[in-house]
Amino acid sequence: MTVTARERTRDSDTAQEPRASLTGRRRRGERARIWSGVIICILFLLPLVWMLLTSFKQQRDIFTTPPTFFFDPTLNQYVQAFIQGGLGPKMINTIIVAGGAGILSLVAGAMAGYALSRLKIKGAATIGVLILASRGVPPIALAVPMFLVARTLGITDTHITLILAYCSFVIPYVMWLMRGFFLALPKELEESAMIDGCSRMGAFFRIIVPISAPGLVSTFIFSIILAWEELLFALVLTNRKATTLPVAIAGMAGDTEHGANWGALSAAGMLTVVPVVILALLVQKWLIRGLADGATKG
User: Fold this and answer.
1) Tens digit of pLDDT for each residue in 129-167?
2) By CB atoms within 10 Å of each CB, which of 91, 124, 187, 280 scores lowest?
3) Which pTM value belongs to this model?
4) Which residues touch 204 (CB under 8 Å, ≥6 apart)?
5) Are 80 and 261 in contact (CB under 8 A)?
6) Angle 262-282/245-253 helices, nearest 10 degrees?
7) How many beta carbons lie within 10 A of that of residue 213, not counting itself?
8) Where are the alpha helices (H) located in the chain, listed in sequence order?
9) 289 burial class (0-12, 13-18, 19+ CB within 10 angstroms)?
10) Is the pLDDT of residue 21 over 70?
């Protein structure tokens, strides 16, 4: 019995129908994921856009009903934020404290993560979990003892006190992240270096650190963000000289005598957000690479 050309064509069309249906489902699923991501991004960015618009509005335009989207922009809110909140010196304090805490935490946390991932320490995984679990301690339980110690030593309202306080909750985070990066690296790298005459520390600084640069950069950015937005320790341990931006914004919001100046608060909020965004954009390549390496290898 011979198979006609029409029957062969019909069989071929029947075989291609499931493939076309599967391709169509994949495309619909991909479109659904894309639109879901777009909607989520809009929901997250909407408050920032609203804060940006409010920071350029005059006081009479902020409380109009319905809200106005077309108005005469002004910089008076930013001027008031700098005058009322004294944001200039406080921004310098925030940069010093966040940068110092990020660098110190990165050095200590990276070395601790390397030790827990490479050295033969009994119960290394348990030690790592306990260090990470220390972040579960309520910050207020640590802030008061830190204040008493700093007052006894006479180092309250100083940058170094705030940096050390921030390191208490940033180092566990850095240690756990860097431990995952180091575990992903083959041990043969250090073994080859030590065979050639390097010590353990020499292999770490000459071989492991350059290879782990993306992970170090991404962890450093997250450390700065954690220190940049912290309020409780800065509120307890500082008074005037080392006050940071979150404390200044809290002080502006708490001015109940004349009511909160929402325009100046929005301007102060934008001045707090913009430096972090600029920093993330400058190291975007390293940040994405570090996150990808940590997600696929760690």
Assistant:
1) 787 777 778 888 888 899 999 999 988 889 999 999 999
2) 187
3) 0.77
4) 111, 114, 190
5) yes
6) 160
7) 12
8) 5-55, 59-62, 76-85, 87-118, 124-133, 139-153, 159-184, 188-195, 200-203, 209-211, 213-228, 232-237, 245-253, 262-282, 284-297
9) middle
10) no
